[in-house]
Amino acid sequence: xxxxxxxxxxxxxxxxxxxxxxxxxxxxxxxxxxxxxxxxxxxxxxxxxxxxxxxxxxxxxxxxxxxxxxxxxxxxxxxxxxxxxxxxxxxxxxxxxxxxxxxxxxxxxxxxxxxxxxxxxxxxxxxxxxxxxxxxxxxxxxxxxxxxxxxxxxxxxxxxxxxxxxxxxxxxxxxxxxxxxxxxxxxxxxxxxxxxxxxxxxxxxxxxxxxxxxxxxxxxxxxxxxxxxxxxxxxxxxxxxxxxxxxxxxxxxxxxxxxxxxxxxxxxxxxxxxxxxxxxxxxxxxxxxxxxxxxxxxxxx
Length: 301
What we know:
By secondary structure, the chain is an alpha/beta fold. The chain has helices at 20-28, 71-82, 103-115, 131-142, 159-171, 189-204, 243-250, 255-272, 292-295, and strands at residues 6-14, 46-52, 55-61, 89-95, 118-124, 149-152, 214-224, 230-240, 275-284. The protein has 2 domains: 6-171, Rossmann fold (3-Layer(aba) Sandwich), CATH 3.40.50; 189-298, 2-Layer Sandwich (GMP Synthetase, Chain A, domain 3), CATH 3.30.300.20. It contains 9 helices and 9 strands. It has a 6-stranded mixed β-sheet, sandwiched between helices. A 3-stranded mixed β-sheet has the order 7-8-9.
């Protein structure tokens, strides 16, 4: 007898830089979220879709929880917490290297308690600690909330993918497939292109610049080249807060901008499975972090 089909929405939440984007990319098997070793990589609630034989799991990767310093930061936090009530399951991601339950994690636990949703505690980076420390951490968090399951992992190790997906599928409600089985994200190619460019900028720029940048695709057009190959012409603007930042992003003789563009183009071609002709510009927009028209892009839809 065939199993009844299950489906549901799973939200990943945690502090900044705990590995949420790395985990969602592992689970989905495609690149849907920007990865960086800097905080605040994810600014929007990005969805990744996993289609299995008897289930469809829709993951939402949320911005990391942090102390808000700008209107943008506040919008990001509202997006994260706003995703929880509509979830069937919550994945609360923490680091194995934590010595205690910090203020940010306590706030997250309180929000989870308010929703009273099934929650898995995912402990990432277990390769960095000894077993005794890990057991102490598990006991500490179990005293705070009755988690459905506690799953220690390393988000860069593919062997944990099936373990997590199996546990999630067990707890999903019976329901239909909400998305076509060929889809792996609800993001448009334009949004993915913006994410990829911003991710590459995060990787190569100095610490004081990256989170003052915002990428906007001005043009995205598909055509065929002389060899009759499909190609995307993409024009993007990287906005920054100050003239000094603009100089850093462009770099000496334009080398930094060329590097960002090259890395982004290669990643797009790999993800989109089509050739990409990418042009990038840098402009100063001092008030963009408080511009409602721009911030609306980061709000939960």
